């Protein structure tokens, strides 16, 4: 069975209205396509909690910082639809750009606080683009539940804050990062790594896990982070934009490990 593809808000809304009449709970998994096992794990989580599941596929130009990155972003709609079909997702909503940003579109959603620092410091406008498109996708799908990966931990916080602040009645579920057997987090962009880069890539995860263990053991956070930065460069990464210990619940920077926390990093390879 194939997954029905919907391209307009009107068609999407008509289908969701029908589902609501049947009393179904609706889940949404927002994606930019090039689906991998990480996305599929979100779809499975959605299917376990909602009777109807919409997967959205929209490569959102407003969240890219470079035209080259946007142009190189993998686009594999047909293959994505094939991957979704056996799972039982109910709709693949892949709107044309005009359904998201119609002529004259003049609104942007800015989330302060949690979007500052980390990726927010290095990718100006990125989280405005994410918050704006996700707000639109929440309103267009009118879903009850949305599923996001913890891989983009800051994005998860931005989306939660946005939905809470705008009174969008949706529950946001966070799902664990899915990794290759060597530890590399699955990402649509991994296909752009050369074989050498692909070999070096999992070192970032192993350095983070080792550093987390040392922090849990009581080593001083600043010393562990300094050594980890050096190890990331030694592993072949071009630079580490940031490497920080942040509180899990509100993303506050931590110099001392005294509450549940995450080590968050962004580093360039190639
Ligand atoms: O995580 C992503 O793939 C994107 O940032 C999202 C949430 C689909 C918004 O475009």
Structural features, described:
The protein has 270 residues and is α/β, with parallel strands linked by helices. It has two domains: 5-175, Rossmann fold, CATH 3.40.50.620; 193-268, Pantoate--beta-alanine Ligase, Chain: A,domain 2 (2-Layer Sandwich). It is built from eleven helices and eight strands. The protein has helices spanning 9-21, 37-49, 67-72, 77-84, 97-100, 119-122, 126-141, 153-165, 195-200, 202-216, 221-234, and strands at 5-6, 26-31, 52-57, 91-93, 145-149, 171-175, 239-247, 261-268. The strands form two sheets. Strands 1-4-3-2-5-6 form a six-stranded parallel beta sheet, with helices on both faces. A two-stranded antiparallel ribbon has the order 7-8. Helix 7 packs across helix 8 (153-165). The longest helix has 16 residues, at 126-141. It is globular, with a radius of gyration of 19 Å. It starts with a strand and ends with a strand. Bound molecules: pantoate. Pantoate is lined by residues 30-32, 60, 63, 130, 133-134, 152, 155. Pantoate binds next to strand 2 and helix 7.
């Amino acid at each position: 069975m194939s997954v029905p593809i919907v391209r307009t808000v009107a068609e999407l809304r008509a289908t969701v209205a029908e589902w609501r009449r049947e009393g179904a709970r609706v889940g949404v998994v927002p994606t930019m396509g090039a689906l991998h096992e990480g996305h599929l794990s979100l779809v499975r989580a959605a299917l376990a909690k909602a009777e109807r599941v919409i997967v959205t596929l929209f490569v959102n130009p407003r969240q890219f910082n470079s035209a080259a990155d946007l142009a190189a972003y993998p686009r594999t709609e047909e293959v994505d639809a094939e991957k979704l079909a056996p799972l039982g997702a109910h709709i693949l909503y892949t709107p044309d750009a005009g359904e998201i940003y119609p002529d004259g579109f003049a609104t942007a959603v800015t989330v302060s606080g949690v979007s500052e620092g980390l990726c927010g410091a290095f990718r100006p406008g990125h989280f405005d683009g994410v918050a704006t498109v996700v707000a639109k996708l929440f309103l267009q799908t009118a879903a009850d539940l949305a599923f996001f990966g913890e891989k983009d931990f800051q994005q998860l916080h931005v989306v939660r804050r946005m939905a809470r602040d705008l009174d969008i009645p949706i529950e946001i579920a966070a799902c664990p990062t899915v990794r290759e057997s060597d530890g590399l987090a699955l990402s649509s962009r991994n296909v752009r790594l050369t074989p050498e880069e692909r070999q070096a890539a999992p070192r970032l995860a192993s350095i983070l896990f080792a550093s987390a263990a040392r922090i849990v053991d009581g080593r001083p956070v600043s010393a562990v982070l300094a050594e980890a930065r050096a190890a990331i460069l030694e592993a072949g990464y071009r630079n580490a934009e940031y490497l920080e210990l942040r509180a899990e619940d509100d993303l506050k920077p931590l110099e001392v490990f005294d509450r549940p926390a995450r080590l968050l990093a962004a580093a360039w390879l190639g």
